[in-house]
Amino acid sequence: MSDIEIAQRAKMKRIREVAEGLGVPEDALEPYGHYKAKVSLEWVESLKSRRDGKLILVTAISPTPAGEGKT
């Protein structure tokens, strides 16, 4: 099965549902539609005292017509 086929079969969860499962309070989210959001840096900073915390940053860029800039 190709990557695109896997992606097309996946059922996305709403970001509030994902955040709730991770313990991120709703007031720490800045939603962008139903499926993505930014998490406030203030909330991230409040986790400094936790032992095994990880921060994963994700970024992307729209490709040019020539296909440059794909992430």
Description:
With 71 residues, this protein is α+β, with helices and mostly antiparallel strands. Helices cover 28% and strands 8% of the residues. The chain is built from three helices and two strands. The longest helix has 8 residues, at 15-22. 1% of the residues are buried.
List keywords for this structure.
alpha+beta; 71 residues; 8% strand
Question: How is this fold's topology laid out?
Answer:
Layout: H1 3-9, H2 15-22, E1 29-31, E2 37-39, H3 41-45
Antiparallel strand pairs: 1-2
Could you provide a short overview of the structure?
This protein is an alpha+beta fold. It contains three helices and two strands; from the N terminus they run ααββα.
**Residues in helices, as a percent range:** 25-40%
* Cα-to-Cα separation, first versus last residue: 21 Å
**How many strands in all?**
2
Largest sheet: 2 strands, antiparallel
- Average pLDDT, rounded to a whole number, is 85
Number of helices: 3
Any low-confidence stretches, pLDDT <50, length ≥5?
A: none
Helix-strand category: alpha+beta
**Radius of gyration, CA atoms, in whole angstroms:** 16 Å
Q: Hey, roughly how much beta strand do the residues contain?
A: 5-15%
Report the order of strands and helices: HHEEH
Note the overall shape. extended
Strand order of the largest sheet: 1-2
